[in-house]
Design a protein that fits this description.
Elements lengths: L3 H41 L17 E2 L6 E2 L1 H7 L1
Antiparallel strand pairs: 1-2
Length: 80
């Protein structure tokens, strides 16, 4: 039923899988750490309107006195 050789083989297989996942995790973390400075520079050049406070999903809008439209503050300044 259970033999020492089978248990040792099972332990070796589990160990190889365990260390393989650890290696993949380290490589992924290193790749993300290397890409983080590059992504930070790209975010500023993306042309996000001012007033977003670092969020991509919310933009603060102000009412343009001349037209009554709601625009981002930098667009309002361009129109004047």
């Amino acid at each position: 039923m259970f033999s020492i050789s089978k248990l040792v083989a099972l332990a070796v297989i589990i160990g190889v899988i365990w260390f393989g996942f650890r290696l993949i995790g380290r490589l992924d973390a290193a790749r993300k750490a290397k890409a983080a400075p590059e992504a930070g520079g790209g975010r500023a050049d993306r042309g996000r309107p001012t007033g977003t406070h670092g969020r991509d999903d919310v933009v603060d809008l102000v009412r343009d006195e001349r037209t009554g439209e709601y625009v981002t503050p930098d667009r309002r300044d361009e129109r004047t």
